[in-house]
Amino acid sequence: MRWRRLLVCCWLVLCGPVLAHKASDSYLVLDVQGAQVSGQWDIALRDIDFALGLDTDGNGEITWGELRARHDAVAAWAFSALTLERGGACPLQVTQHQVDEHTDGRYAVLKFVATCPASTGDVALDYRLLFDLDGLHRGLLRLDIDGLTHSSVIAPDSRRQTFSGERVSRPTQFGQFLVQGVWHIWIGFDHILFLLSLLLPVVLVRASGGWRGVDRLGESVREVLWVVTSFTLAHSITLSLAALGFVSLPSWLVESAIALSVVVAAFNNIVPMFNRRRWLVAFGFGLIHGFGFASVLADLGL
User: Fold this and answer.
1) Strand, helix or coil at 237?
2) Which of 168, 237, 278, 301 has the fewest CB atoms in 10 Å of its CB?
3) Pick from 105, 22, 38, 27: which is nearest to 299 by CA?
4) DSSP character for 276?
5) CA–CA dist 235, 182 (Å, integer)
6) Considering only CA atoms, which of 118, 120, 125 is closest in space to residue 146?
7) Are the beta carbons of 116 and 90 closer than 8 angstroms?
8) CA 5 – CA 267 distance, rounded (Å)
9) pTM of the prediction?
10) CA-CA-CA-CA torsion for 79, 182, 151, 46, nearest 10 degrees?
11) Distance from the Cα of residue 207 to its chain's centroid
12) Burial tier of 133 (Cβ tally within 10 Å: 0-12, 13-18, 19+)
């Protein structure tokens, strides 16, 4: 037991702050009715500060005065990275600046209008915001074209997209969000670390000479399936409840709980606490992880 205690003490001394991720997102809502366009673009103040340096006094807080002093610069920077076309370019003009509170902090709100050369035909969008500074940034789009609603996730490799006035099939929309969901998991190190930490004891056991693989592969495979399935099921439950507005938790609480889940699962590899019914632990923490995904859909208003 001494070596365990010593290892734990060293780990506590050497470890840094524990953080869960919140990807960089902006929320773009467009309403195109014929040649007339109205829209709203919510961009995180932290992202604007990263690109333009809003925090002039360096106190770590961005005030309304600091943002108001840079309204023209913010609008010029944002709309230099957004192009809208319908029969030609639609010049975008800012009509109002506001600030709104999202689940993960404060956002600058740019309201704007435009008049397009044509009142019919496809609508093309070219989105380039922050891609040169943050390859993980995503633009979350809700677009209404003459009464039909489209939704999309805009990434560096899909920054130009074209939308028609025809309804997009549900399988197509499902495929688009499936791809982005898989990508989110791939870059969501907290989710991956949690599952890996939880699954390591399933396939490795302690022996006198160190670690060795389990004796029965079949049992390990079943245990892995139980853990992954329970995590996914719990994840889906809270994702649905939160996205539909039945449950709402502050982002700081959700992200702290996600980070805690990673620590607890990792600590279990040093000092075993729950080597039986591991699927129950995965289910419990999966409920928390689901809220992390739901904040994106809730903020977009889907």
Assistant:
1) helix
2) 301
3) 27
4) S
5) 14
6) 120
7) yes
8) 12
9) 0.67
10) -30
11) 41
12) exposed
